[in-house]
Amino acid sequence: MDFELNDNQRAMRDALRQFLTRECPIEYVRECDEQERFPVELFDKLAKQGWLGLPISEEYGGTGGSCTDIAVFLEEFAWHFEAGANCYYTSVIIAADAIAHFGTEEQKKTLLPKIARGEIRFAFSLSEPNSGSDAASLKTRAVLEGNEWVINGQKMFCSCAQVADYILLMARSDVDAPKHDGITMFLLDPKTPGVEIRRLKKLGLKPMDLNEIFLTDVRIPKDSLIGEVNRGWRNVLKTLDYERCCLSAVNVGAAQSCLDKSLTYTKERQQFGQRIADFQLTRAKLADMEMEIDAARLLLYRSANLVDRHIPNNKQSAIANLASSETYMRAALNGMRMMGGWGYLMEFDMQRHYRDAKLAEIGGGTSEILRIVISREMLR
Ligand SMILES: Cc1cc2nc3c(=O)[nH]c(=O)nc-3n(C[C@H](O)[C@H](O)[C@H](O)COP(=O)(O)OP(=O)(O)OC[C@H]3O[C@@H](n4cnc5c(N)ncnc54)[C@H](O)[C@@H]3O)c2cc1C
């Protein structure tokens, strides 16, 4: 059993660390958070350095990173800038993965190199006002009329739609089929007449815009879809383990960032004539954070390793996602506790983690849903 990253992965992580230390200083992270804007400049630089091509195979202009490589990348990215890593996952990885697995050769040739060069961005729209955890009960309707699909309905919680050139839109194309069948993944240009995108205000992850989308008689060409008609839900399921690894990597990197900030602070802050790091109760918190992050990281890389070996790991990836998201939430909470009133101030970074961490327990399946997935596998 080998728990070490290989030489290439270590070199990649070190190069990314140097790049982000230079191009993504904490002042930039704060600016994007305060101004609630997508880190466009950083993504342009990531594209120039070839980092946007990591999840895309060499054949289509990328560097063909494995799931483990991508986990290393996202963990490091999230340590510096969690919302940036989430933007990367949403606007690059989800679409690159879906197109690579289910797109036509023509779509792969035209879209994947553009993603790698940073010329196009994506959003993914599954959730609706009345279908969240029960996502397959979605109601947005797509009807084929001649050579066009006509789409009507409302989507909820679509990240990155403000900056997306395309939205991967899940809609019901067959109302008579069982709910998990009859769903198709459409490729929607958000500028199409009848599409209205409204930005929602939210607690954290401010650089990643969140939207509701209204679709009124939206007409798109018959072939504007990824994968087969009525097979969209299977697309989502097939890539779920990989996507849970990506989210876990973001959580682990961000949790480590909370711990490192807590260590720095508790070594500097003095009360009762000594460093607060020397109080036993502080040390217990630091030790718990270290233990939980270490465990979450091992679960993440076990799962990534299984994905790379094409071994089904529904349970393991759900465990990694659950452990890492709850670890991140607790790390942010403990970080806030250790900083006392200072953590509550906007000029310190822990409050941002505290706001951002909550999404980790919601997106990609809530903690309750992940527990259902794990226990279902256990009771099979
Ligand atoms: C910031 C943000 C970004 C997002 N980005 C996207 C995106 O880009 N694309 C997209 O499609 N979606 C996105 N989502 C939506 C996200 O995936 C959903 O919020 C999530 O799946 C939960 O759905 P819901 O909010 O409707 O909650 P609900 O499903 O209504 O759940 C409410 C509560 O009930 C619990 N619950 C539900 N079912 C069960 C059950 N069977 N057993 C026990 N408890 C249960 C849940 O765990 C939760 O605690 C985003 C959400 C947020 C907040």
Automatic annotation (TrEMBL):
Residues covered by the Acyl-CoA dehydrogenase/oxidase C-terminal domain: 230-379
Origin superkingdom? Bacteria
What does the record give as cofactor? Answer: FAD
Looking at the record, the residues that make up the Acyl-CoA dehydrogenase/oxidase N-terminal domain are: 7-119
**One Pfam family of this chain:** Acyl-CoA_dh_N
Q: Where is the Acyl-CoA oxidase/dehydrogenase middle domain?
A: 123-218
InterPro entries membership: Acyl-CoA_Oxase/DH_mid-dom (IPR006091), Acyl-CoA_Oxase/DH_mid-dom_sf (IPR046373), AcylCo_DH-like_C (IPR036250), AcylCo_DH/oxidase_C (IPR009075), AcylCoA_DH/ox_N (IPR013786), AcylCoA_DH/ox_N_sf (IPR037069), AcylCoA_DH/oxidase_NM_dom_sf (IPR009100)
One MF annotation (Gene Ontology) recorded for this entry: acyl-CoA dehydrogenase activity
Keyword vocabulary terms for this entry: FAD, Flavoprotein, Oxidoreductase
**UniProt record similarity statement:** Belongs to the acyl-CoA dehydrogenase family.
Report the protein name in the record: Acyl-CoA dehydrogenase
Annotated organism of origin: Phreatobacter aquaticus
